[in-house]
Amino acid sequence: MNAKLEKRRNEMIKLINANGHLTTSYLANYFKVTSETIRSDLKYLERIGYVEIVHGGATITSHVIDDVSDAKNKKHTRYAEKNLIADLALSLIPKNSFIYLDGGTTISLLAEKIVERNDLTIVTPSLLVVSAVLRQHEKNMLGDVADRGTTVLVSSHNLRELEDVCDHVGILNKGKVLLERSLSDLQDNTVKIQAAYAAAEEPALPPELEVLHRSAVGRVYTYIIRGKREDILHRMQALSPLLLEAIPLTLEEIFIYELGGADYAVREIIL
């Protein structure tokens, strides 16, 4: 992981911890980067357990709050400490070394940093370490090229990784472009809603809402609705729900519901 990226993510944890919750737009303005860059950072921090993504931003996870509140210096979290350990370990590895890496989150952080060293031979039984090295190497190359103003075209069936590195996404099937849009547009135009009602039966939804999917667990209903978040929530409020919450969709989910029944084989790839 390059030093600039690491510094931003460490500072992001401290900011979110100090404020309890911060929006993506606030973080983008604070760090002078795009919203897509912030979303990528937050997804990484969520994967390793230090923030929880909520619609429009992120909150600090409860275990980090506990760790920080118990520490004398509240500027640090376990993520920061693990980064320091990884930095120290990397500095102690001699040039042209042959090293063995086991599993674990601290080791995976070290593995990402090792990408900066091209003089090492790594042996590992951990797929997490292999994935961390390869993924970070690819992201570093993409970031370096993109920073020079070059457009990078990435072809992959792994939508989770595309979501981390791409600003604009599309899907091809049998020589046809099924969907092509900026990532921010995709995420802004389809919303997952969870709702619960006082009545035993589900009320009829406003007819102007374009519902792509509906499911229920007990009396909690989940809807995938095409449209703007604020407009959808405003119209749903007319039903006087006991619970009404907008939840961010993953890129996989967006593609599934945007494509509908266009092609079952494509849906299988996405899933």
How are the SSEs ordered, and which strands pair?
Layout: H1 3-19, E1 21-23, H2 24-31, H3 35-47, E2 51-54, E3 57-60, H4 62-70, H5 78-92, E4 98-100, H6 105-114, E5 121-123, H7 127-147, H8 159-165, E6 168-173, E7 176-182, H9 183-189, E8 190-196, E9 210-217, E10 220-226, H10 229-237, E11 243-247, H11 251-259, H12 264-270
Parallel strand pairs: 4-5
Antiparallel strand pairs: 1-3, 2-3, 6-7, 8-10, 8-11, 9-10
Explain what you see.
The chain has 271 residues and is α+β, with helices and mostly antiparallel strands. The protein folds into three domains: 3-78, Orthogonal Bundle (Arc Repressor Mutant, subunit A); 93-147, no CATH class; 184-270, 2-Layer Sandwich (Alpha-Beta Plaits), CATH 3.30.70. The protein has helices at residues 3-19, 24-31, 35-47, 62-70, 78-92, 105-114, 127-147, 159-165, 183-189, 229-237, 251-259, 264-270, and strands at 21-23, 51-54, 57-60, 98-100, 121-123, 168-173, 176-182, 190-196, 210-217, 220-226, 243-247. The strands form four sheets. Strands 9-10-8-11 form a four-stranded antiparallel sheet. It has a three-stranded antiparallel sheet with strand order 1-3-2. The longest helix has 21 residues, at 127-147. Mean pLDDT is 75; it is low at 63-77 and 261-271.
